Amino acid sequence: xxxxxxxxxxxxxxxxxxxxxxxxxxxxxxxxxxxxxxxxxxxxxxxxxxxxxxxxxxxxxxxxxxxxxxxxxxxxxxxxxxxxxxxxxxxxxxxxxxxxxxxxxxxxxxxxxxxxxxxxxxxxxxxxxxxxxxxxxxxxxxxxxxxxxxxxxxxxxxxxxxxxxxxxxxxxxxxxxxxxxxxxxxxxxxxxxxxxxxxxxxxxxxxxxxxxxxxxxxxxxxxxxxxxxxxxxxxxxxxxxxxxxxxxxxxxxxxxxxxxxxxxxxxxxxxxxxxxxxxxxxxxxxxxxxxxxxxxxxxxxxxxxxxxxxxxxxxxxxxxxxxxxxxxxxxxxxxxxxxxxxxxxxxxxxxxxxxxxxxxxxxxxxxxxxxxxxxxxxxxxxxxxxxxxxxxxxxxxxxxxxxxxxxxxxx
Length: 411
What we know:
- The protein is of the alpha+beta class.
- It is built from 14 helices and 18 strands.
- The strands form six sheets. Strands 5-4-1-6-9 form a five-stranded mixed beta sheet, sandwiched between helices. A four-stranded antiparallel beta sheet has the order 10-13-14-15, with no helix packed on it.
- A hairpin with a 3-residue loop joins β13 and β14.
- α2 crosses α3.
- The N and C termini lie far apart (153 Å).
């Protein structure tokens, strides 16, 4: 390539003849002639060789014409491919756009206060949950679309009332305002088939917002919170250990101000500086908070335990056989009857546990003893010690007995 450039320079700039150029550079005259005749530098081109993929390409195209989204592994099985699957994937990736329909994604513009995107993130860590169990509970992540302000907290589960309680906590404590719209994916605890669950409907009605569940196969619409999930996984998780879910939430709460202080190139600023613009355009918090407690009613069985979200909690056995009210939030499980508190426990994050209050066991032992050894009433006690002669006197019967013994009469 250097000779080609030098030959053209000597011929066009210094006006040397082909013979002079060949003599000066020590190359053949044909080399000089070819360099001057070509418009570009010389390059090596390997002659085309038919590959194994080229021989099966007609079969690949036939399958893609009928099933444009057929996976490469299925295509390999159908055509009997025995070579490298990575080479086949590359070729199918190049051919597929000719048959698959285009799915364009528009650029979304979010105005202040309009949208908060919501999603569940499952951190790649084994967190002790108590009772010898460990797991990776869901983390509710909510991001204000305009300012990119991130809020997040770990929840005990992904059931509806936990999601509602988590949304209310993040909106009321971290943002202090209600966006005009909440965007979710097709999370079953939020709704299915275009219909929201009843607790979620009550929640959005109380806070006067709109919750939109995005259509399937539309990840671009929720891309802001998806990138936040990836940011949490790559910037928050490395090098950290957690001894409990509360420890996870504590460390996360300490780290989020750092995350929201970074400069986001897309918006040209820091979320912590722009969140005030976002919240000022949002709705105010409602005067009455939405219902965030899971409530149910059950008749207390003989074993005086109620099952709440996978665990059994003891109750004062004096309410056995009566209907009791069970209320569970993110931290507490309470059982009441007619306003009287029968049990109050810390909610457990594990599953299959039996949570017992020693006072309930002592009360059950006393009640069992009373049932097995009943104390007689005063009337019953009087009947047990009454003399039978009282009945003779009551009915006017006089009974005299005479007996003879050793010629003596005994009356």
